[in-house]
Design a protein that fits this description.
The chain is an alpha/beta fold. The protein has six helices and eight strands; from the N terminus they run E-H-E-H-H-E-H-E-H-E-E-E-E-H. About 45% of the residues lie in helices and about 20% in strands. The protein starts with a strand and ends with a helix.
Length: about 190
């Protein structure tokens, strides 16, 4: 018996609707078109009031704990954050501070960010890539950065961005396939037990 790939996205957007959530959802859909998977989108905005004051993971409520477990159990992770003062948001980082440092080893991670202008596009390589290198993930080769002008009514509309997102997913598929194959024996072991 095989199980679908667990594909989890985390959006660091604090508002609803959120361009970061829209970008994360678009990337989830592109991956799901290519690979059978279970999709799960975690939006930090609604969760933020429930973990912002927590210092230890033992202090977070069950709804936040379930979100943390979903990230830790993901076969593939998509992260998208708005750029705030040249970096990911503080609450995005605070959420990942609760993730077990060994839980994401070798997990493929597609990095994405949104910002007001192109001048913040390097946030993917200068902020997100080092954070996920700490977790020993396999950050995927291409990141996706979107500006406010790439959206119309919180939907991606810019043709160049849509092509970049498709290319990022296409280039990620070999690593996602490796993750899928690694997940199959684990599923078979659980069924046998």
């Amino acid at each position: 018996m095989t199980r679908p790939l667990r594909l989890v996205a985390v959006s660091g957007g604090m508002q609803r609707p959120s361009k970061s959530a829209a970008l994360a959802a678009h990337l989830l859909d592109l991956i799901a078109e290519a690979v059978p998977c279970e999709q799960h989108l975690i939006e930090l905005g609604p969760l933020a009031p429930q973990f912002a004051g927590s210092v230890w993971r033992s202090q977070v409520p069950d709804v936040v704990e379930r979100a943390l477990l979903a990230v830790e159990q993901a076969d593939v992770l998509v992260v998208a954050t708005p750029v705030f003062r040249g970096a990911y948001t503080g609450l995005f980082k605070h959420f990942f501070d609760f993730i077990d440092q060994d839980a994401l080893i070798d997990t493929p991670v597609l990095l994405a960010a949104t910002g007001g202008s192109e001048r913040h596009a390097l946030v993917i390589d200068h902020q997100l890539r080092p954070l996920f290198s700490f977790f020993q993930t396999r950050t995927l080769p291409l990141g996706v950065y979107a500006t406010d002008t790439d959206f119309v009514d919180y939907r991606l509309r810019d043709e160049a961005l849509l092509k970049r997102a498709a290319l990022a997913v296409q280039r990620a598929l070999p690593l996602i396939d490796l993750a899928r194959r690694a997940a199959l024996p684990q599923a078979e072991e659980r069924v046998a037990a």
